[in-house]
Amino acid sequence: MFKKIINTGNDHSLLILRVVLGVVLMAHGLQKAFGWFNGFGWNNTINYFTGTVGIPALLGAFVILIETLGALFLILGFAGRINAALMGIVIIGAMVVDHVKNGFYMNWFGIQKGEGIEFDLLFIAISIALVLKGSGSFSVDRLLMQFKTKESSKTLYSADKVFS
């Protein structure tokens, strides 16, 4: 199972996708966690999630952690498939709970009540690509995969070789 999670090719396009997705989502996570970049910080964000959105505080904390630590792990390419899936789920939640009622377009000119879903669709597409293909080049997953391959080739009778 671990090999399936970390398995990835040496694809530079996946590096670009994972770093961009991670950086953009991390900026939002840092707003929520620490109040950076004109954000509300941890307590105010949790209050928004529980009071306005109506989700439990634990789920709100999980969202913040996905957008900060998960984004950092994605940038590094560590457990890329898992972190991309979690980010896709977070974005689907934001889209359904908050953005879909505002239509398709982002609120470029401040005339809508909020953001539409176009940004969410891009995030979801990138998340799906990373879940399907892995972290790509220059990733911790790729290093772990190469290490596991070297380690298993040194073993005389590995379970994978015996039972495959």
**Number of structural domains:** 1
Largest sheet: none
One letter per element, helices H and strands E, the order comes to: HHHHHHHH
Shape category: elongated
| Helix content range | over 70%
Structural class: mainly alpha
Low-confidence stretches: none
Counting DSSP H or I runs of 4 or more residues, the number of helices is: 8
Strand content: under 5%
Mean pLDDT: 91
What's the Cα radius of gyration?
Answer: 19 Å
Distance between the termini: 14 Å
What is the tally of beta strands? 0
Summarize, please.
By secondary structure, this protein is an all-alpha fold. The chain has helices at residues 2-6, 12-34, 41-53, 57-76, 80-99, 118-133, 140-154, 159-163.
Description:
This protein is mostly helical and 164 residues long. The protein is built from 8 helices and no strands. The protein has one domain. The protein has helices at residues 2-6, 12-34, 41-53, 57-76, 80-99, 118-133, 140-154, 159-163. Helix 3 (41-53) packs across helix 4 (57-76) and helix 5 (80-99) runs antiparallel to helix 6 (118-133). The chain is elongated and about 55 Å long. The chain starts with a helix and ends with a helix. The mean pLDDT is 91.
